[in-house]
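Table S2 (continued). Query chain:
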Amino acid sequence: MKTEALNGLEIKLVRTVPVDEFQALYQDAGWWQDDYKISDAFLLQIPEKSALFAGAFWEKKLIGMGRALSDLCSDAYIQDVAVLSAYQKLGIGTLIVSFLIQELKKRGVDWIGLIGEPGTFSFYEKLGFRQMKDHIPFKLE
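Corresponding output:
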């Protein structure tokens, strides 16, 4: 279950990632502040308990990720797609999302959704995602 591209880039499904590199990826994406420290035990659960967790590795260093939450038989949500800023604009995010879609479809998942951040519309639209008309995302507060 590996995809090789871009001279040394490897995208693969994993259940564990180096905690320090994982936290750095979340911080670089702006999801967590530099002084925000999450326990290693919590961080280890994210890839382990995701239905699918795709890591993008350059020379064995985690430089990107994406994950899917799913029952792995009908529906899935892709989330937490991120690539370190130093490696952006190389098509790595596209490879990660495409890899997750391929892996989900292999398992028979036929409904794949996501909620993108502002400014990501064209990125996801190029990958085949469309806005769902007459649907509103909700979050429990």
